[in-house]
Amino acid sequence: MFTYQIDREVSLALPTPEKDAAPLFDLLVASQNEIAPWLPWVKSMKSPKDEQIFLENAMQHFIEKTSLNVVILYHDEIVGMISFNRFSWFNKNTEIGYWLGTDFSGKGIIQKAIQGMCNIGFEEYDLHKITIHAAVENTRSNKTAERAGFTLDGTLRQQERLADGYHDENVWSLTKSEWEASPCLSNSAE
User: Fold this and answer.
1) CB burial class (10 A; 0-12, 13-18, 19+) of residue 164?
2) Which ranges carry the N-acetyltransferase domain (predicted)?
3) What is the CATH number of the domain that holds 73?
4) How far apart are CA 150 and CA 178, in angstroms?
5) How many structural domains is the chain composed of?
6) Which residues partner with 169 through β-bridges?
């Protein structure tokens, strides 16, 4: 299993669909009220089998080099997922998506996971730019992007379809040169 150790507490790992589906599904159910407003697909996850199918597809996309989905581990316990949703190989860019179980928020885990993904993206995939997209009203995700060193590029009108309709979406970005210039951003495992 591929594991990327960020520090003593947080690591990222390729999912093992049969093993990881149940704990991820349980996290989604426990965190549904906080996650579902921003990630409408959560309501379509009805069973661990649905999660397993998603993970199997994610692993196929990894093999095809179209996306990268990894589980976030906190003290070796699955606490969420983070991904490069799709690669644009010509432009050398991607978009980060993430979710975290409610009980694990406020511990800096997502910040570390984003840092790890940026390290992977810029070092291993030789990307030029990584973006984070967040509905304008999703205060937590917008603050997370800002704290992670991303710059607000702008707002796309009615870009993101959520359960209650279309919302404006902020686009945050970090370029490889910005990442290289900031020791706190490009510092990998402790």
Assistant:
1) exposed
2) 25-177
3) 3.40.630.30
4) 9
5) 1
6) 135, 156
- Residue 184 to residues 33, 58, 179, 188, 189, Cα–Cα distance (Å): 33, 30, 9, 9, 11
Map residue 82 onto helix, strand or coil: strand
Can you tell me which residue has the tokens 């495992």? 189
Q: What is the pLDDT along the chain (190 residues), one digit of tens a residue?
A: 589 999 999 999 999 999 999 999 999 999 999 998 899 888 889 999 999 999 999 999 999 999 999 999 999 999 999 999 999 999 999 999 999 999 999 999 999 999 999 999 999 999 999 999 999 999 999 999 999 999 999 999 999 999 899 999 999 999 999 999 986 665 544 4
Residue 187 to residue 119: CA distance in whole angstroms: 8
What would the two tokens of residue 24 be? 């991820």
Residue 2: the pLDDT is: 82
Torsion sign over Cα 152, 184, 112, 97: positive
Distance CA 1, CA 4 (A): 10
Phi first, then psi, for residue 82 (nearest 5°) are -140, 150
